[in-house]
Amino acid sequence: TANLFVSTDRSLSWRIVDYNFDNSAHYVKFSESGDLYVFGNNKVFHFSSVSSSWNTILDASANIQELFITNSDLIFVAVGDETSGTLFKSTDTGTTWHTASLPYAKKLFEAPQGWLLGAGGTLENPSASNSFISLNGGGSWSPIDINGPIYNFAVNANGDIFIGSDGLFRSTNSGGTFQSIAPNRAHVYAVVSTLD
Fold first, then answer.
1. N or C: which end of the chain has fewer CB within 10 A?
2. What is the mean pLDDT of each run of 10 residues along the chain (196 residues)?
3. Residues ≥6 apart with Cβ < 8 Å to 69
4. What number of H helices and E strands is found in the chain?
């Protein structure tokens, strides 16, 4: 079985969480509201900061590749393999799930404005393409014309979008088109933009 250890005294002591994670406690993520999500294999577990209780909130039919929590506490879960599968979305901390309008994306990114990027190609699977952008918090998605892996994503105060890939790309029309602004031989793994 997989155990989850927690510390409430800055790592001076640890205790095992009393819950059956069914060998699926591989990754841990926190939401903005302080809730805890644990996932691995095909299951997602949720610890509520309100009720102080654990629940299994998703038991999928395939492996979970990614769990992403937006700044507004929307949850996206990518279920499938390296190149294909289904992206699920929850707006109520995992009580209910719906198939997201975004085609499968193994990796998601969020800018401070709430804009989302769903990447088909990632560092682990660079050959995939078909990436999409949402300017309304995941309500709708549009494809972007970068045919390659996506490593990072940022938006500046003017709304210019920067994507780190095999090269650096910029869009000045809300993701409609992108122009290369750095050599393709440069692998841009981090992009940072201030909102000042």
1. C
2. 85 92 89 91 91 92 90 90 83 92 82 86 54 87 84 90 90 93 80 72
3. 29, 30, 31, 32, 37, 75, 76
4. 0, 18
